[in-house]
Amino acid sequence: MAKTNPGRFFEDYAVGQTLHHAVPRTVTNGERALYHALYPARHALYSSDAFAQSCGLSGSPIDDLAAFHVVFGKTVPDVSLNAVANLGYAEGRWLKPVYAGDTLRSVSEVIGLKQNSNGKTGVVYVRTRGLNQRDETVMEYVRWVMVRKRDLDAPAPETVVPELKKVLAPADLVVPEGLDFSSYDFALAGEPHRWDDYAVGETIDHVDGVTVEEAEHMLATRLWQNTAKVHFDLTFRPDGRLIYGGHVISMARALSFNGLANAQMIVGLNGGAHANPCFAGDTIKAWTEVLDKADTTAPGVGALRLRLVATKGGKPFDLRGADGKYLPEVLLDLDYWVLMPK
Amino acid sequence: MAKTNPGRFFEDYAVGQTLHHAVPRTVTNGERALYHALYPARHALYSSDAFAQSCGLSGSPIDDLAAFHVVFGKTVPDVSLNAVANLGYAEGRWLKPVYAGDTLRSVSEVIGLKQNSNGKTGVVYVRTRGLNQRDETVMEYVRWVMVRKRDLDAPAPETVVPELKKVLAPADLVVPEGLDFSSYDFALAGEPHRWDDYAVGETIDHVDGVTVEEAEHMLATRLWQNTAKVHFDLTFRPDGRLIYGGHVISMARALSFNGLANAQMIVGLNGGAHANPCFAGDTIKAWTEVLDKADTTAPGVGALRLRLVATKGGKPFDLRGADGKYLPEVLLDLDYWVLMPK
Amino acid sequence: MAKTNPGRFFEDYAVGQTLHHAVPRTVTNGERALYHALYPARHALYSSDAFAQSCGLSGSPIDDLAAFHVVFGKTVPDVSLNAVANLGYAEGRWLKPVYAGDTLRSVSEVIGLKQNSNGKTGVVYVRTRGLNQRDETVMEYVRWVMVRKRDLDAPAPETVVPELKKVLAPADLVVPEGLDFSSYDFALAGEPHRWDDYAVGETIDHVDGVTVEEAEHMLATRLWQNTAKVHFDLTFRPDGRLIYGGHVISMARALSFNGLANAQMIVGLNGGAHANPCFAGDTIKAWTEVLDKADTTAPGVGALRLRLVATKGGKPFDLRGADGKYLPEVLLDLDYWVLMPK
Predict the structure, then answer these.
(1) Cβ contact, residue pair C24, B215, below 8 Å
(2) What pTM was estimated for this model as a whole?
(3) Neighboring chain C residues of A241 at a CB cutoff of 8 Å
(4) B213 to chain C: which residues are within 8 Å by CB?
(5) What residue intervals traverse the membrane (chains A, B, C) (predicted)?
(6) What is the ipTM of this complex?
(7) 3-class SS letters over chain C
């Protein structure tokens, strides 16, 4: 027993600690193909080398969310093995596309700690960076989780709550080097709607749905080397095998192709809530609200800030009840920035 | 809502229209491996680079049916999103092997239209071509589907029913450049039976069976970027989640290895009927009838015309009832040409 | 029917026979990614090219067990299609790492035969070698299976029972050329425990569990081109679709990461028993007992002999009942050698 990883408990964290997460991962065309088998992903930049090259990139990158899942997965053994809840994300930025052949690893810094008043748990804030084989940061994000204490008598640490941006400013977004949408092929991409055609406040029902299966979410979650027991061991929770929240994010993003086919690249993650748990048998659908628009200096490239909501029933565009809480059918409320041709 | 793709209705088609289908796709060794995970595919030419090279090719191609599924998948949003039924295939030809790294896109021409007498639906005939990154046509086929009208009062178009070959003539078949079976290794390929050993009228029970699962057919269908809702959303049809007909084709073809291990390459699709729907839990088996034989000018290469029947029960070689209709256990009746060593 | 493979029966084998198994297979990054999707595999050497290069290899190999499964799968049509039971393994050695792009084929020699006293079945011993495209042996092992007779009146062959090593001696193990653990990064690998930290007799409960699904084990078994009907056709056995024993081996090995993260490479298989059948819905857990330790001449590299036990319930470290038989919850009892940094 001594040799297995018990995970860190709340009192094991200190502000300023650096966690070098284990098990680097070389991502290849195999991961790329699996992403397309697991999600109805159709954004052309991630589907076709030729299309990506026509947009100024060297080839089709690994899906932005696949890169996120790999980076995130590495943090689980050190950050969330004893987590009670994943509370939030902020300041997520994609800094460099990840290509087949790249090797990713993750490093986190503990940037905040706050013991809960019940004395049994506390909130841990980490800023995680994903690095490639050249030690370039390919993405970064802040996540905070509620973690159990091992020893309820351990003293509470000094409370440090980091100041986090509610929303990334357009200037914070990094457009991949060379990206150029000035000769973008809308017909090949699948929809005619360009950045100019989207208005702040506009909502889009993405219409399509996928009923999720046990085998699929486990294949996905393992592929990201995410080790959280709840996603694999059906005997672990009385209510069933919990689906990794990232599986819902990827499914909803892929479904959003229908109406947002030109929202090619994800560059910012402002925030996100896994509003309710998802289990096999749920039929995931998605809708979007356009929250903001911004220009970029890259040729032909605009940015859209979107709310992506995944549901397992209910009506499109319903989000919260009269009590202000998420409706029980809402799975995900994600706030992110994408790049789109103007 | 305006931004999502409602699909085309019958009155949206006109003879002579060209449909440039969206979302090109780079196929890689990832797709290759997934094909082998999804189907019990064992034809040596598609399993081993060394074997393919010994047959005069540059390496092991992507399975012919995988290429077909990718090309077909791209047409779904433009051709069959509002289809009531997939009525038939004809004049399908594989013109060039597809290799890992190739990028495929699809273009269709509307070649026929016929409104049904009920005034609610009509038949649309399209000739689809799959093109690679060098704009070479890698395959082509004709498909006709029954499509709903949006507006029942829309006038019926002039009826145009294309003349289609019932069967491709041997001269229509394209043998891949360089293909040479003159030093073919039958032991490595798995069976001793050569072209000479098959007789017209001969039937083969392929014996093996696979009970299909929801997760598998969805992984496959997504991999081909086929977006038809019926294959993914369990709430869409009262009788269950319909399995993509192409999944049945690939499963039956792979099962046919046992008895047809040397039927290496598919070069022609004369016709095909999805006789009954397939659902998860069905156990697919297959049998073959040899319909014709033809020589080719390539060294050591003969052609066989085969009927491949997939079933979910019943007895081998039973196809139609006394009423002339397909028996309820028949899933697929496919008429195709293969290349085999002489 | 004459054209399908009925498999060999007991009287079809003769000591000294060489079986050239069919369908060579090129393994790629696609197979690599699928292995990581199918099993919670996290050993760093197989996950990261950069990590493998820091250990003196040219890149990250295909998982040792994936290589085993591919080699094993090819033997099924010739060895175990009419097998009643898989009785044992011995003298398994991994001789060269397999890399993406390598093409594997298998050759077996019949090294023993013994008809059972019931006259209906017999035991067949084969030594199987896996060869790459350069005709180098990448692995070898002995397997013996109980096979049905076709004709009960066929005369019994002379009994030949090969003398097999109960355990490979340390000198029998082949350390991959260039392997060097002298600057091994324990933090990146995921655990601090080195060879010196393991003691003979020590037991490790690997804690994590995976509830297995039908779709997953079929994807795996097909990927290895294993054609045994019992793994695919739900109608074949009254008790359900039997999971390929190799799926349990790979699942248990991957789960053993938690406590054996530095047991990087498998180099020897001393023996193994599939103690009880595994079906979808079973939750696989694993525990290990350290059986022996040995030094090697490679820099920083030690060897550990481990017993890996997979279970579907019960308590860790329980193996046999008072009657000396495996407990009903035990799925696998595997005896193997690994290489680990000192």
Answers:
(1) no
(2) 0.97
(3) 211
(4) 214-215, 218
(5) none
(6) 0.96
(7) CCCCCCCCCHHHCCCCCEEECCCCEECCHHHHHHHHHHCCCCCHHHCCHHHHHHCCCCCCCCCHHHHHHHHHHHHHHHHCCCEEEEEEEEEEEECCCCCCCCEEEEEEEEEEEEECCCCCEEEEEEEEEEECCCCCEEEEEEEEEEEECCCCCCCCCCCECCCCCCCCCHHHCCCCCCCCCCCCCHHHHCCCCCHHHCCCCCEEECCCCEECCHHHHHHHHHHCCCCCHHHCCCCCCCCCCCCCHHHHHHHHHHHCHHHHCCCCEEEEEEEEEECCCCCCCCEEEEEEEEEEEEECCCCCEEEEEEEEEEECCCCCCCCECCCCCECCCEEEEEEEEEEEEC
